[in-house]
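Q&A log
Question type: sequence-to-structure
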Amino acid sequence: MLLRRRLRNAMLLTLVVSTLVAAAISWYVAGNLLAPNKSDVGTIPPGMSGTSITLVTESGIKVRGWHIPSADSTATVILLHPIRGNRRTMLGRAAMLNRVGYSTLLIDLPSHGESEGEMITAGWLERHAVSAAVKLIKEDDPAHRVAIVGWSLGGAAALFASPLDVDAIVIESVYSNVTEAVHNRVRMRVGWLHHVIAPCLTCQFFLRLGVTADELSPMDYVAAVDCPLLVLAGEMDEHTTLAESKELFDAAVEPKQLFVFQGAVHQDLHQYDSATYDEVVIAFLNSWLDR
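Response status: OK
Response body:
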């Protein structure tokens, strides 16, 4: 009887300790995933000329960026980078757009590059930087046309900020909801254990951000986009599956367009196939920016 009680107590203690250790590990891992990714971005590369800008979001966060004009341009494209990137990540797109006559505005989203911020929030708080960028252009010239190209985190931020006073939006590899996004990423690393680990991570969003995982759903915001929308997706993307991209596309209102890069995973689609990317994106922007 005494031995049985000791075994039961030992098992209970082991369970409690294991639970506490698992909770501590998941808290640490989630903290690292949401940690800022700040860095010195440097200067505008040779061959491109522009000015450094500073935006202030409605929450008071300072956002750094570059405005790279194109002579006699009547439209500006705001370029929004993916998670753990910065404005330099979007320079290839900026060069392409400048070549065809578009001005560009590249920003470091909050908690990235040289912008302020204490935590990466899957696009939720980053949305305020998108709104501030649009406001900057419109205040300078209300008649100026504006488009957005947002890759992954940047695209999610644009959807969370919608509706926006813009003429066209391009989103690339944007997750449909954060719960599925976390499960996808954990599944790729530990297989079936994602059923256990992913919920330990997603349940922390409310504690850390004040918003639940269910609320972090671009799917619920895409219908608020009141301008033409182009959705770009990688056929073999396991982070944001093609099924998710199609689901996001289906939830959007017309006019809309979906383009799938055959064989592409969760990667820089412009680098993957620059010729096709340039053709599709330029044709879309020209159609809706009076070019």
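Response note: The chain has a mean pLDDT of 87.
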